[in-house]
Amino acid sequence: MRRWSLVLPAVLLAACSTVESNGPGGGVLPAPSGLSYQVTSGGPGSAPVATLLRWNDNTDPRLASWNVYSRATTSGAWKLRGTTTSPSFSDAGVPELQYYVTAVDNGGFESPGSAVVTVDERLQLPAPAALTTTSLDGAIALSWSDNPFQSDPQGFKAYHVYSTTYDLDRDQCGATWALEGTTVAPEFVAGALVNGQPRCFGVSAVSIEGFESLWSPVRDDTPRPDARNVVVYAAQAQAAQSGFRFWRDLNGDGQVQPAELGLVGANDANVADFVVTRDGAGNLFLAPARTGTQVRVYGTAPVPDLTSIDVAPVGGYSTLAAQALPGWGYVFQMPGGDGFLRYGAVRVTHVGRDFLILDWSYQTDPGNPQLIVAR
After folding, report:
1. N vs C: which end of the chain shows fewer Cβ within 10 Å?
2. φ, ψ (nearest 5 deg) of residue 315
3. Which residues pair with 161 in a beta bridge?
4. Is residue 135 classed as helix, strand or coil in its secondary structure?
5. Which class for 226: exposed (0-12), middle (13-18), buried (19 or more C-beta within 10 A)?
C-alpha cells in the first residue's frame, strides 16, 4: 500500500511572503485541492533535479493567480517559492522538502492553504535484483527481476534501461551511459545495435513520484549475426553445397559485411569451416575443414533453440567430426587470421539422408566468446 500519510494539513500561520499580499486565509476563494508532485530524476540512485507541482484548476473569475510556498525542513519557515497563473509549477533544482499552494483573488487576498505535500525520497523503489541478457542479430534482449513492482505495485511507474560501451579486453564499461528506453514490463529489446560491438546494460525502477532506484547488476553482451533454416547437403550427395563458412573476408578489409556471413559452398578444406559428410550407415556429420577449426558438442542434451547456446565453452574442442543430431547444438572455434579466435554456433533442426537444416550464429567481435547469453 502506498504511503500517502505524508500529505499533511498546511500550517498557514508559519507562512511568510516576500510580495505584497493580504496573507493566506483572508480571501474569499477556497483552498486549492488535489496538490501532488512529481520529481525529475537526476539518474539512477541520485537526487532529483526538479519538481513539478500540480493541483486542481479553479474557474472562478475572481481568481488572479496562485502562490506556491515551500520549506526545507518540517520546522523551517515557509517562503514564497513562486507565483503562477496556471495550476502547475515547476521548481528547478534539488526539491524543497514540503510545498503548499494558495489561490489569490483580484484584490490580492489569499485563500487558505492547500494540503502540504512532502517530497520524500524514501518512496524510492528497490533496484532490480538480477539482470539477464541474450545476444541477437543487431540487438540485445534483456530480462530482469520484477521485485521493484512487486514491492509496491501502486507506487511503481516504469523501468529505465541504460547502456554504454564495453571494453572486452579490460572488462570495463564506458563512462557515458545513455537511456535505451522505458518499459513497464521486466523485459526489453535494445535494437539498432552494431554486431560485434560489446555494450554494458543496467536497469533502474522509477516510482510514480519520479524517484529512481539504484541500478540492477550491470551486464555486458555483444550482438552478433544469425540466420535460421539454412540447408547444407552431404558432400556425397551434392559436393557444391556441402561446405559452410561462418565468415569469409571476401573484400580483404577485415570488416564483416552481411554478404560475407553464413556462406554455403563447395567441399573445400581451404575455404569451409566445416563440411557435412555422410558415413556408410547414412549418418550425417559436421566435419571441421579449414586449418585450425575445431568443434565440440554443446552440452549433454538437445537445446530448445539457437539462443539456448550461451557463451562458447573454454575447452574441449576437437578436429574430429561430430554427428549431426536434430535439436543438438555445436560450437565452432576458428582462427580469424589476426591472432584472435572466432566463435560460431550451430543448432541442427533437421537431419535427412542427403542434407540437413541448421540455424547458426557468429560472433564478429575478435576473441569474444559471447554467442547468446551474457556471463
Report:
1. N
2. -140, -170
3. 181, 203
4. strand
5. buried
